[in-house]
Amino acid sequence: MGRAFVTDGQWRKTLAVVRSLGKKGIEVTVGENIRLATSLFSKYATKRVVYPSPGTKPDAFIDYLLDELKQVSYDVLFPMEEETLLLVAKNQKKISELTYLLIPDYEKIEFARNKKNIIKRARELDIPCPKTWFIEDINEVEKIAGEIQYPAVIKPQVSFGSYGIKRAGNKEELISKYKEVHKIYPLPLIQESIPRKGEAFGVSALFNRDSELRAVFVHKRLREYPVTGGPSTLRESVRNLKVQELGLRLLKALNWVGVAMVEFKVNPRDGKPKLMEVNPRFWGSLQLAILSGVDFPYLIYRMAKEGDIEPVLDYKIGVRCRWMFPGDFLHFFSNLRRFRWTPSFFNFRTNYDILSLEDPGPTLGRALSVYSLLSQKEIRRLLFRR
Q1: What is the average pLDDT across 195-220?
Q2: What's the domain range around 158?
Q3: 213-224 and 232-237 as β-strands: parallel, antiparallel, unpaired?
């Protein structure tokens, strides 16, 4: 029987990994820096650990992780959140001597998480992007503000989810909001705003150590929160060869290793999918890919045990999965068209990221974790910024 160590137990993508591996008889150790974390309540978690915060005590976290990997023989390590992933990548040589780790090097992750880098690279590859203005000096904003077609979007070069993103409807708003974002996220980008009615897609992929494709999956967003752009609250597995080709073209050009997701949104003005960003890690809607037949966590586990695997390029179409609480609830209360949705909010016959009669513990864990999360200064700071 194999063993896996999974970090960042609070998040629903981590729960997807824990359930995927646990159902196959693999012993899963899941860790977090708080005791009341979603995945720690799963019946598929064999061992639960509380470690130092990667955000506030990075050195202590790495010391803890190295000690755990030395004491217990793990077949594979899954660093789930970006903050943790970057720490692990910085220490990849030491960690890889103790367990299997399929991630890019630190510099490649840093490059991919920066929207400015990615947009410039995509342009070189002839991948469509929203019209974007790169600001090199804060004094340029007032000049550029007169050239932009509104509404426009201000985006940090590097941020998490929808944090730091603001929309401006005119020149005055752009200048004031840009300066506001700049105080926290220096020199953010300015982009044209793609209408909300444009379809949004995610291209998820897995590459081996030689940057050869080993799995691919495409989903379409049906709802998201915030409604102006954020993590999906309801999504569906689809086949879209155009966005798939564009996403894989970018990742192959980066010589990617491990998993990543490339996000696109179709601009209804010209019907073309435009690159939005790259997530250089596991993504929040991971459970949908697993339900559709592309079990990314287990494929990585198999690579750890077998060396390599045959590519998984086919999957079930039309599968839906929902992030019910708080995601879809927040979307419902913030969307004025809430009673005219298709599919309806009240259609509960679907799959869920967290809710499960077979494994009900994480639902309780999610509810109990709210207090623990809000007790952390870095979480309160992020929520305030949002």
Answers
A1: 96
A2: 131-192
A3: antiparallel
